[in-house]
Amino acid sequence: MGRQHDCRPLVFLNRAGILISASGGWVRGLLAVLFAVATMVGCSVRSDPMVVGDAQTAVRVRTALVNDPGLGTTPIDVNVRAGVVTLRGMVRSVDDAAHAVTLIRDVVGVVGVRSELMVDITPPPVRERPETRLPALAPLPTQAPVRLFAVGVSANRSLSEEMPFTDASAVGPIFRFRPRAGFGPTLGFTWMEARLRALSGSSLLAAVRVRPVMAGVEYRVGQGRTTAAASLVAGYAFNRLDVDRDRAGAGRAIAVGNSFAWRPGGSVWFDVTPRVGINLFAGYLFTRPELTLASDSSVVTARFTANAAIFSVGIAYWVF
Fold this sequence. Notes:
This protein is α+β, with helices and mostly antiparallel strands.
C-alpha cells in the first residue's frame, strides 16, 4: 500500500484562512480558501502499487535472462504491464525463444508471457579456403611424375687430335637429376672410344675405351619444357684396350692403365612427354692414360694425352 500524505498543516492553514476572511478583507479570505482546496487535492494522491510491482517483476525477469547460460549474451527487451511480460528482440534459434518463455514463467510476479522474439536467419560468413599451390617445378601428381631421377642412353662421338689417337664413336649411359633452376649436383658418364694408330704409320692397331665416372656441379636455367645447363665434373676413368689380333705392327699397344679425368660441358634437355626427355651435349674431356707399347726390340710404357671433344645425343626416362 502507498503512504498517504500528512494533511494536518493544510487543515490548519485552511482554518487560518477562514479566520483571516472573517476578520480581514474578503480578498485574503478567498486566497486562503483556494490554497486549502489545492492542498486537499494533493492529499488524495497515493502511489500505485501495480506500477511498483511491475517494476520489481521486470528486474527479476532481466536477472533471470542474464544469468541463463544460453541467453545471457542475447539482447532481449523486457516490458511488464499488470504482471504480463512482453519479450522482444533477436534470438539465435526457435529453441532459444521457447526456452526464454519457459524460463520467465517461473519468475515471481509473472502472470503471463507474450513472446515477440524473432529468430536471426542471417547465414554465418563463409571463409574462403586458400588456394593450395605446388612448387613451380613439381607438376601435379595426376598430370606428370615428380621427376626426381632419370636414366637413359646416349650416342657419343669423340674428335681427337692427339697422337696416336683418332676419332671414334661410343655408347654411354645418362643419369639426370631433377631439373631445378640454379646450381645443383650432376653426374658425368662421358664414355668415349679412341682408335690407336701405329706410331710409324696410319694403320689402326687397337682401340682405347675410356669409361670415366665423374661428379660435379651444374647450373641450370629453364623455360617450359626446355632446360639448358653448364657443368663441370671430375672423376676417375676406367680404361680398356681392345687389340686387333689379326694385325701387327711397330709400336703396337699391349696394355692401358686407368686415369683421372675432368670435363667441362653444356647440355640442352627437352621433355618430349612428361616421362621421356631428349638430351643434347657438347664438352671437352681431359685425360692422360698410361699406354704400354711393344715392338720387336723394346717395350715402352708412357702417358699419352687422350683429350677429345665430345658430342652426344641421348634419350632418358624419368623413373620417379
